Amino acid sequence: MDHFLYRDGVLHAEDVSIPDIARTVGTPFYVYSAATLRRHFQVFDEALAGMEHLICYAMKANSNVAVLKLMGDLGAGVDVVSGGEYLRAKAAGIPGERIVFSGVGKTRDEMRLALEGGIRQFNLESEPEMRALSEVATSLGVTAPVTVRVNPNVDAKTHEKIATGKSENKFGIPITRAREVYAEIADLPGLEVIGIDVHIGSQLTDLEPFRLAYQKVAELTQALREDGHTITRLDLGGGLGIPYERGNEAPPLPMEYGQVIRETVGDLGCEIEIEPGRLIAGNSGIMVSSVIYLKEGEGRDFLILDAAMNDLVRPSMYDAHHDIVPVFEPEPGVEQRPHDIVGPVCESGDTFAKARNLPPLGPNDLVAFRSAGAYGAVMASEYNSRPLIPEVLVDGDHFAVIRARPTYEEMIARDIVPEWL
Fold first, then answer.
1. Of 234, 259, 280, which residue is a domain's last?
2. Which residues are known to be catalytic?
3. Helices 178-187 and 127-140 meet at what angle, rounded to 10?
4. What is the mean pLDDT of the chain?
5. 210 shares its domain with 260
């Protein structure tokens, strides 16, 4: 579900027309729907109703402080994977007791930052990390609440670059070694075991991998309790997919996902944490771009846009699909032709789609990339010295720029030429 619909033949974000935003901020730009963000949080909240739970938005999907504040105001926690993300969460007003720190490479400085600023828990991913956290916490005279991320060796059946729960992935500790790892934590000063963490991947479109992983977590919970550990919290990760290609079979709904949680770990008396990112943010945003040229090639036509792979890297990195639609709705029956849709970056990989059918388009016409609210702006770069593009938030009939496009001068001024040159 999203709030990007045609009205009188013009694409709108809620009650704001996309051409109006384009005239104000220029293209390309991202625009997010507050109503969609709120609704996607609420469906997860409803899916876990009746269970003690906290929805920790995985902010790596979209870390704009305005988006984080909207999430925090709804009562969400956040899942962070760096010191910078931690500080963004705090800047958005999210208290430390609702911040979970994940990631395989937490530094001692990041540990200290979170311990001093307040943290709900650290999700530990290796023995060296837990020993380092013990030393940092002890030096500060505090106790760090921890879970261990276990790797259940479950195939998430997703793209290999976003699978995280198989034995060959870098994440977590093999679940077969969990009991000995928890025993070592119990002997380390400054650490307090509170639960278990698991996360098997992103963009999952099948519930069975979740079920298999959570069944293993349930068995581990019982075993760890028998060993004398207090397990009161289960962090079950995120990863539920979204429908990037309209017309294809939709992934499972959050309510169905919630039922899997109830059936596998619901009788353990644990508080449940989940960390959705893509499903909350993905369909809440679109990227809007203008046509620069229509170029006729040999055997194919190229639609050259002012957006590029540095603005939305997912198609280049993952061969990811985004529906691309004209902002002005074509008349019924208009002939559509295949186009290769590309950007101006000097790379053949700067291709968004091949042989994609579109109605006739020309210079300055607007197109929208759907389902671009997650892993779009956050993965953007300034490759080819192209400034980062604006982010806009719509709420009802008004909108605001929540990240401005830097000028070329601002971008270049960040470089420093040494005096000796």
1. 280
2. 346
3. 20
4. 94
5. yes
